[in-house]
Amino acid sequence: MSVEKANSKIVVQRFDPSADKEPYYQEYEIPYSKGTTVLSALRYIYENLDRSLAFYSSCRIGKCAGCHIKVDGRTRLACTAVIEDDVTLEPKKGTVIRDLVVETLPGDK
Question: Which of 54, 65, 76, 106 could form a disulfide with 81 if both were Cys (CB 3.0 to 4.6 A apart)?
């Protein structure tokens, strides 16, 4: 008999260059639901737990590639990557504007 997981632990690298000297990690616990995407988890955190969390989303269907972040060390699209367990989220390579938002140049993916 399998037991359904009740919550997922989402660890997010936070950094605001105007206020922080170094990046740090903040942990959030969200209700687990099979098929939840990383973007859905970030939206849940923003809407219910922490309105200061900064992340990017646009098309939500994997076309614009603006939501690229590192999910457990692998660069993935937040809108299509599914959470199956606890995860650590970090900004992709680049100059961090705030939290998971990085400066991108035209043509960057």
Answer: 76
